[in-house]
Design a protein that fits this description.
This protein has 1085 residues and is α/β, with parallel strands linked by helices. Helix content is 37%, strand content 19%.
């Protein structure tokens, strides 16, 4: 039992959907919290709106509420469950802000509950800029000179004191949202204006510039006995000016002297004590002037932070787990270290290895966005690697990114001066530019002056370049040369490129010379105590620490760094596989390189390898594990496209692939082969063709008829997809798609303009099919399935059509040769069923389907992969006897989009219109007895709550006007003021519907009092925007309206189907509101 016996139940507040600045590292933290609390016999109540998370699985809490994280919902849960305490320090800024509101509204006091982990006073002292500055001064530290502002006029006055450039930091936002560096008045107005909008308290801090300084973070923990430990020091390779989430970071800090580190350490201890975080962890950030050593305290997070996951994985010291134990009354000296089993948590970790984290960006999804890195975080994921030295860890992390040209390369024709000019601007390419500038002959001093990156890091990169030159110029690859290259992190592929041979030749040579990596154990105490937890990283060292085992092992390949199109949903499936296979008697071995995830928690699997997910690294792990015990095989179908792409290469090397075979995967992935599958199964598909040039593409498009959907082959998340309405646009697309080659043609499909799209998840074992769920897209065809809201059970599909879908799915799974999961996308047009595509792997919808139906589909898939039949899983109670997933109530999944993070170079927002290329970073779920309420809940959870009253602006394309009439009438009947522009206004007037006319933005006379929709949005006078673009050019017409709505946080709906759903949602909200019900209650009902 916990030390604080008054705590019998705890409400854990999660972090909500994955957004830039607050990603799945908080699922890792929250999952750990739930596990710890339950192991202590405490009843756990959980609130989180994100169905893709592990923590929202019914087994992790006693009562799991997948509901919007709002004060209203929290009060309903507290009134119903009566928790002894609320834990909000593990759910990021979302949970912390929610806890503050509970206090401010008197709800904690009303129901006799309390915050644990950090109290309100401590949270305010850490979060409030002015209070925190005074604390820093009180303990003898120094803050950057700054002034609090609440209006643009305040900002213009403040800058006279601070002078340009100034850093703008909004209060109470996450991931630096709305922040930036202003070099002049125009930029200040732009950045501060956005910051004031994004801050929930309309407050920004203007701060003197410390751009170019070195940035450090320390992870700190304190218990109620005032024991304080520094868990980990982290150093940013990028200088100040780049958000720490977007910077390459290294742990432990490498360029601090011992005296400097002790100074930061002392400041941390004094700050955490003065702020008053009595039981838990916090993150404190510093800037150090490299010219004179002046230290400035930037900020602290009085909670488990984004960096806590990185620090936990880097040290083997589970910050969230320990923070939870501290919150319920334990002290650090009472908590044993999981790795050593002997030392207590009051022992500070000491590392004898280096950890490097590199962010993963998604600028290709937003081609009009400013590519510069600033104080507003833009990365969507990260990869981490562990090495015996910095170059080794750096190169391993780079090849973990899975981005074209992410590894260092060494071309001969480099322009030193051009590279020096480019690397002076921070972008995602800067590290490669630094390496190539040095390789081209630039000096360390020249690169340092241009980039402000510390010379020590530059010298380490120069070591890599020197080794590359040695490899290139060597007559033969000697064992010592290969080993020395490997100790600097070179891959077989890089060595092969330098020698002009194939990577497999380098691997074959290594193996002939018996040069293999060994696997060391993360030990937290620099080898002083034995490490008992098999958490491994590779090194070209002498002694392997992989222990012998007797049980047959299954390797599960994870999904790598999160990015748009492949996110936390795939980690969910991998974690479920590990749990299921461990229970089935297998030794589970996880391979992944993403520090944010639950899969890279050493508690999840029997063994964890923190390694890049590419052929060389995975194959070496397989060989190492084969030496110490039997290996049943490798599962590649659960981690998304990343491991799927390795299947064939691993099979050729003799690695057994469990589940769906590589040849079967090819049948679904290759468009030509899939076309033959459709022919053999007599299934209908939209007319399609492939093209290797514009002329071929034009003839295919002419044959099948416009509009067409064009896309590159072998892509994830709809990358590069576009709906094309004419030849001119087609030519533009082909010119942009430079990757077209004989291996990668452009695919051209007839676009079913008026279709209804469906997603189907199913399991197949070669004999029986389990239909996990049919998801009906709420958006019409043409919106990527990852961005479309969807509903289970389908609302407009007959039972006959559902039977046809099940039979079509069975035919496809059987013909492809699926053994496990398959996702099929269908379209219904003119009452006919069309197959759009099939993915013989876990899809991003698996967690949503599992939560909606109460059936853990990924666990079943892993067991089928290892030989179990669906009939056995039915007997075991894992799958229902009906072989159909039955929805509990109505569940709506809604996408969360990151448009507010991206701005063009001129400061204006990027367009928020949805299309066939996926752009969302996360998702939420609403569940209710009927569709309207479920949809309304999903909108609240996705930060775009539907209004119950007010003004709605409607602007419709000609195609959509007729089909939107009923929805507009409904708005007027419900008492909304409907505003329209001329075309929509006159169309409605002809049909007897009166609306308020507003001028278009470009023609309104602002001085005479005329206001356009954009003006009304900016003035906060609109509550909902409906804007449906169509086709070439027209898609850009409403861009100002849509980007203004995104900036103001006003819900902006861009399809008629979405408009109809919104009407159903508003009706539900205006009716009886909504009730709450835990997932456990839904499953039992």
């Amino acid at each position: 039992m916990p030390k604080d016996f008054s705590i019998e139940s705890v409400l854990v507040i999660g972090s909500g959907p994955i957004v830039i600045g607050q990603a799945c590292e908080f699922d890792y933290s929250g999952t750990q919290a739930c596990r710890v609390l339950r192991s202590e016999g405490i009843r756990v109540i959980l609130l989180n709106s994100n169905p893709a998370t592990i923590m929202t699985d019914p087994e992790f809490a006693d009562a799991t509420y997948i509901e919007p994280i709002t004060t209203e919902v929290l009060e309903m849960i507290i009134a119903k469950e009566r928790p002894s305490a609320v834990l909000a320090t593990l759910g990021g800024q979302t949970a912390l802000n929610a806890a503050i509101k509970l206090h401010d509204h008197g709800i904690l006091e009303k129901y006799g509950t309390k915050l644990i982990g950090a109290d309100v006073a401590a949270i305010r002292r850490g979060e409030n800029r002015e209070e925190f500055r005074s604390i820093v001064t009180k303990i003898g530290g120094e803050s950057a000179r700054s002034i609090i502002c609440h209006t643009i006029e305040d900002c213009l006055t403040a800058v006279k004191t601070l002078s340009y450039p100034v850093v703008v930091r909004p209060s109470f936002t996450m991931g630096g949202l709305g922040s930036g560096i202003a070099y002049n008045e125009d930029e200040l107005r732009l950045i501060a204006g956005a910051g004031l909008q994004h801050s929930p308290v309309t407050e920004v801090l203007l701060e003197e510039s410390i751009i170019g300084w070195k940035e450090f973070e320390l992870e700190v923990m304190r218990d109620h006995n005032d024991n304080v430990v520094i868990v980990c020091s982290i150093e940013n390779v990028d200088p100040m000016g780049v958000h720490t989430g977007d910077s390459i970071t290294v742990a432990p800090a490498l360029t601090l002297t011992d005296v400097e580190f002790q100074k930061l350490r002392d400041l941390c201890i004094a700050i955490i004590r003065e702020v008053g975080v009595a039981t838990g962890g916090c993150n404190i950030q510093f800037a150090v002037n490299p010219a004179n050593g002046r230290v400035v305290v930037i900020e602290m997070n009085p909670r488990v932070s984004r960096s806590s996951a990185l620090a936990s994985k880097a040290t083997g010291f589970p910050i969230a787990k320990i923070a939870t134990k501290l919150a319920i009354g334990y002290s650090l000296d009472e908590i044993p270290n999981d790795i050593t089993k002997k030392t207590p948590a009051s022992f500070e970790p000491t590392l004898d290895y280096i950890v490097v984290k590199i962010p993963r960006f998604a600028f290709e999804k937003f081609p009009e966005a400013d590519p510069r890195l600033t104080t507003t975080m833009k990365s969507v994921g990260e990869a981490m690697a562990i090495g015996r030295n910095f170059p080794e860890a750096l190169q391993k992390a780079m090849r973990s990114l899975e981005r074209k040209a992410s590894e260092f390369s060494f071309p001969a024709d480099l322009d030193k001066n051009a590279l020096l000019a480019k690397l002076s601007v921070p972008t995602e390419e800067r590290l490669t530019q630094v390496q190539q500038a040095l390789f081209a002959g630039a000096t360390i001093v020249e690169v340092h002056l241009a980039s402000k990156i510390d010379p020590w890091f530059l010298a380490q990169i120069e070591l890599i370049n020197m080794k590359a030159r040695e490899i290139e110029n060597s007559g033969e690859l000697t064992p010592s040369l290969i080993k020395s290259a490997k100790r600097l992190g070179f891959s077989d592929k890089q060595i092969a490129s330098l020698k002009g041979v194939a990577p497999l030749e380098i691997m074959a040579l290594r193996h002939r010379l018996e040069i293999h990596p060994v696997y060391k154990t993360v030990d937290t105490c620099a080898g002083e105590f034995e490490a008992f937890t098999p958490y491994h990283y590779s090194a070209y060292d002498q002694e392997s620490e992989v222990e012998p085992r007797e049980k047959s092992a299954v390797l599960i390949l994870g999904s790598g760094p999160n990015r748009i199109g492949q996110g936390i949903e795939f980690d969910y499936s991998c974690v479920h596989a590990s749990f299921a296979l461990r229970d089935a008697g297998f030794e589970t071995i996880m391979v992944n390189c993403n520090p944010e995830t639950v899969s890279t928690d050493y508690d999840t699997s029997d063994r964890l390898y923190f390694e890049p997910l590419n052929f060389e690294d995975v194959y070496e792990i397989y060989l190492a594990e084969k030496k110490v015990g039997p290996v049943a095989g490798v599962i590649v179908q659960l981690g998304g496209q990343t491991p799927l792409g390795l299947a064939r290469e691993l099979e050729r090397a003799g690695v057994p692939i469990l589940g769906t075979a590589p040849d079967a995967i090819h049948l679904a992935e290759d468009r030509g082969a899939f076309g033959e599958v459709l022919t053999r199964t007599n299934l209908r598909a939209p007319s399609f063709g492939t093209a290797f040039s514009y002329d071929e593409a034009r003839s295919v498009a002419q044959r099948i008829g416009y509009p067409v959907l064009v896309r590159p082959s072998f892509v994830l998340g709809g990358r590069g997809m576009e709906i094309v309405y004419d030849e001119e646009t087609l030519q533009e697309f082909i010119e942009k798609a430079t990757q077209i080659n004989p291996e990668h043609p452009v695919l051209i499909d007839k676009f079913l303009d008026d279709a209804l799209e469906l997603d189907v998840d199913a399991l197949f074992d070669g004999k029986d099919l389990y239909l996990a769920g049919i998801m009906e897209h709420i958006e019409e065809a043409g919106i990527h399935s990852g961005d479309s809201a969807c509903v289970i059970p389908p609302q407009s599909i007959s039972e006959k059509l559902q039977d046809e879908i099940k039979e079509a799915t069975r035919k496809l799974a059987n013909e492809i040769g699926v053994r496990g999961l398959i996702n099929v996308q269908y379209a219904i047009s003119g009452g006919l069923l069309y197959v759009i595509e099939a993915n013989p792997r876990a899809s991003r919808t698996v967690p949503f389907v599992s939560k909606a139906t109460g059936v853990q589909v990924a666990k079943a898939a892993a067991l089928i992969a290892t030989g179990k039949q669906i009939s056995q899983l039915v007997s075991d109670g894992l799958l229902p006897k009906t072989l159909m997933g039955e929805a509990n109530g109505v569940s709506v999944k809604e996408a969360v989009l990151p448009f507010n993070r991206f701005r063009r170079v001129d400061g204006k927002g990027v367009d928020s219109v949805l299309g066939p290329e996926m752009k969302s970073t996360g998702e939420v779920m609403g569940v209710a007895p009927e569709f309207g309420t479920a949809y309304a809940k999903s909108q609240i959870a996705a930060f775009g709550p539907l209004p119950r009253q007010g003004s709605v602006f409607v602007s419709l394309s000609d195609r959509d006007k007729e089909s939107a009439i009923d929805s507009i009438k409904a708005l007027i009947e419900m008492g909304f003021a409907v505003l329209t522009t001329e075309g929509t206004n006159s169309f409605l007037k002809e049909r007897g519907i009166s609306t308020i006319l507003v001028p278009k933005h470009g023609v309104r006379n602002y001085e005479s009092g005329q206001r356009s929709a954009v003006d009304l949005i900016n003035e906060g006078k609109l509550d909902l925007v409906i804007n449906t673009p169509l086709g070439r050019g027209a898609r850009r017409d409403g861009w100002l309206i849509r980007s203004a709505a995104v900036a103001r946080g006003i819900s902006c709906i861009t399809t008629v189907a979405g408009f109809k759903a919104a009407i159903a949602g508003i009706r539900a909200l205006k009716g009886e509101g909504f009730a709450i019900k835990s997932i456990q209650e839904w499953i039992a009902s």
